[in-house]
Amino acid sequence: MGTKKIIKALLLGDVIGDGGSRALFVALPQLIRDSRADIVIVNGENAADGFGISESIALQFFSLGVDVITSGNHIWQKSEITNFLNRDKRLLRPANYAPQAPGKGDVIIEKQGFKFGVINLQGRHQMAPIDCPFKVGSNLVDKIRKETPIILVDFHAENEQEKEALGLYFDGKVTAVVGTHTHVQTADEKILAKGTSYITDLGLCGPTEGVIGSDAQIAIDRQLTQLPLRSKVAQGPAQLQGVFITIDASNGKSLSIKRVSEKLGV
Fold first, then answer.
1. Is the pLDDT confidence value at 2 over 60?
2. Which residue is catalytic, options 74, 156, 181, 183?
């Protein structure tokens, strides 16, 4: 697999609307250079006006240095993305949707002489009753480990217990389990007993002044009235949030995990 022993991964949280895309455009190339990341994974399911992602946005992310875009329950919001999911293996949908659903939930990317497995899963607590992420994920891990021990899992889920349980379930079998979906970066990053990096939520790439990336006044009005008001992406300065992981390439175990949180003036 080459002579390099230590490799690096940058994983960023949910990109929210134009603000998140703008933050990636302004800051990601330099962040990749500074961190010397060998692979970059971004959750892009909210990149198009806060709901879904378009082909043009996905291609823009790839041009900035993103290697794999993961997603979640909002991946289906833009009907145009269906064909792109089937055409481009770098855009993932959660693997535990039905096999008949467009696209795939896993991919192996080869860079710098190393193979990186990426798996996208979705939780079931307070979310759609899709297939079991533990069972589906376990089958994918067994398949990918035949080619590489370096496996990065994006678990797009609402419930903290479900996320922690999956992290421990995969401890020693994958390189990292990182949570997405809640848009609030947690401070529980750690390396589990058997060498798997874990964080409950990566946070968000998008507006800093809002409610999980959405317009604050609409969010407040929704709470006051309990009406199903449609969210809008907040305006104002943006941030990038996620984690930076160093990995032992020989066995896929994590050596360190560090939170990334950069506020930008864009």
1. no
2. 74
